[in-house]
Amino acid sequence: MKLLNRGIPIICFLLFGVLFSYSQETISGKVQTETGQPISYANILLLKASDSSFVKGAISIENGSFSIENILKSRYVISASMVGFKTTATEEFNFEGTKELTLSPLVLSEGVELDEVIVASKKNLYVQKIDRTVINVASSILSTGSSALEILERSPGVLVDRQNSSIALIGKSGVVVMINGKQSYMPATAVISLLEGMNAGNIETIELITTPPASFDAEGNAGFINIVLKEHTDAGLNGSYALSFGVGNGTVTSDNINFNYRKDKINFFGTYSFLRDSQGQLFEFDRDFIDADDIPIHLYTISDREPIQRNHSIRTGLDYQVSGNTILGLLFWANDNKWTMDATNGSSETEAGMPSSFVELLLIERNQIQHLGLNFNLKHNFKDNKYLSLDVDYLKYDIENPTMYTNRFFDGNNDILREELTESDKITPIDIKVGKVDYRAHSSDKVKWDVGIKGAFSNFNNDVTVGTFQGANFIEDAELTEISSLKEQILAGYSSIDYKIHEKTSLQLGLRYEHTNSELISDKRGKVVDRSFGELFPTAYISHKVNDTLSFNFSYSRRITRPTFNDMAPFVIFVDPTTFFAGNPAVQPAISNAVKFDVNYQSLIVSTQYSVEDGAISRFQSRFDEMSERLIFGASNLDETKIFSLTLGLPVTLTNWWKIQNNFTYLNTKIGNTLEGTKFKFEQNTFNINHTQSFTMAKNLTSEFNINYNSPSIISFTGTAVLEEFYGLNIGIQKKFGERGGTLAFKVNDVLDSMKYTVKTDIPEQNLNTTNTFDFFNRTFLLTYSNSFGNRKLKSARQRGTGSEEERQRVN
How far apart (Å, rounded) are the C-alpha atoms in residues 42 and 45? Predict the structure, then answer.
């Protein structure tokens, strides 16, 4: 509440400014035929001249006249259309905010069918809205042939950790990924797999939402990443496809197709993506510690990995228009991600500077996630802009991760001592059922309110087996072998109200209540988690437009980050015999409060945010067990995390053929934590620069390059570790071959082969001194051909989400 109180003066200031900025300006005109006859019921669109984005609409009356009120100062274009007539538009004109501007008559000529009309415009790459940053994927050449994950890795304020399957937004982990505006419960590993297999050719926009409204689930401290898939035109069959092939340290292909078919009351749509990536990876682990005999020990492990990833992803649905006001929808999606790897790990140990041992570890691993989901949706529109929406979802996951380790132990003289065969396996079936009801009503033109309820019921089993072979006998490791089951239910209700104070100012207030019951039972330890708690989550937003070039946004939100299933349940991934990743059933949910203030001046975006999180979850906090001399990476709660961020978005148009997009982010991160009874404080200043330049070299020939730099940072999922600076350069060129000839794009990812993540921990009091380097990326040359098929009518299909995307987020 303290954060909310601090925001009250800002809200009062904005409301005070409203009193001096309110006015009503009108643009009017008339639509007629070539012979001067008035055209009634024509569609009138007011569009921004800069990017053809929609501002307002109207319909001409019986005498052909129309009027659009409450217009802000700017440059506009007005378009008029009517079935059986050719669409026409005015020239660009400058509206100065006069009381009323009357345009010359818009003349429509007969004889052109609607399905021959094509509207095309290139949108800005980044657009700032009241609660989110929108990335228009098609506006970047570098998105061609890319996956959704690669686009996020190049997005301002986003950091992807592939090794730990984590995504951070503005320095905070706990991001929830959405598809078409609905929250997701999906395991972190499954999220990364899904995004890797999702081709950019199927994506319309990606939205980075740092202050979600009350209608969104309270899960996700960092916010939401909403992926809006392409929806195609209304009647008949249409769609697009893309084929890609790339070469780097191995080969990669990423192919996709999407389609939409609508006839009468039925709309059938779908997407399919295929990915195969065989590029090599190189990891290094370096650590120093003092053993029980006060001898300094140095361990160095290098992992030469040869992975192959194969991903099939399909999403298909059917909408049926039961009546003019009721629509019934069915949606099915499935994903099969199979990741196999052969790796050679070499681990050397020195005692007081003298070689003491060497371990060679040969690793064969398969990590396969198979997932399917079903959604039933019913939406009924009442009169007076009211609607009721019902979603019922069923999600099923089968996760299996068998791994075989062949360990060969050598002494300091490199003479072999023994050979040991270790096996681990993790079998994880997960079932989730979700029900969700939303109701929206408009009390007036200025007021609308939403209410909703949701229930999510999860069943999770985790069977982990770890052991070694002694001859033909398999001896289980009692410390690491465990069977656990988790049952969890989350019941939620929310209400929010949107109030348009007047045309330039909007206010939104929301309150959400969530009650959680969690029970985790171990076959060895009995009931290790038994939680039942309820929390209130308020949100507040205010948006004010001074004029069309200057606007302000302010928001406050309270969020929760729950431990993922894998955070709590046991799992083991070995790096070497004394270094591994594991789960922690003791990890607790984290609560955060955040305020955000944005200023948009023309195309300049300035955004500040301050958040305080109690019990932030560090998903891969390092811990040294001095008794076993094992280094364990696992989830744990930090005492407190405070993050201040300042983001600047500055697009520059030098000429009509040369455009530049600059995004700068500053982070100040403060972490307080207690380790083994000792309190520690960490602080880090971080700078991120994301710079893109695009060029129109000739007709239908464009090029682009992108530079991304990140200075040393503390990210909450790394806990007390510092991520060293990294940078990358990507370039691309694209040629379009006419309206039906398709597009050919060539790009080079990571031109300098510089994208490496190095994470350091230095806490002498805890006997922790580690440096870990992860090289996932390789310089890759990628060629992509894409094209569309079918007709190109204007009316689009219904966007479809589900009620269970947040549930998919937490399957880890």
Answer: 10
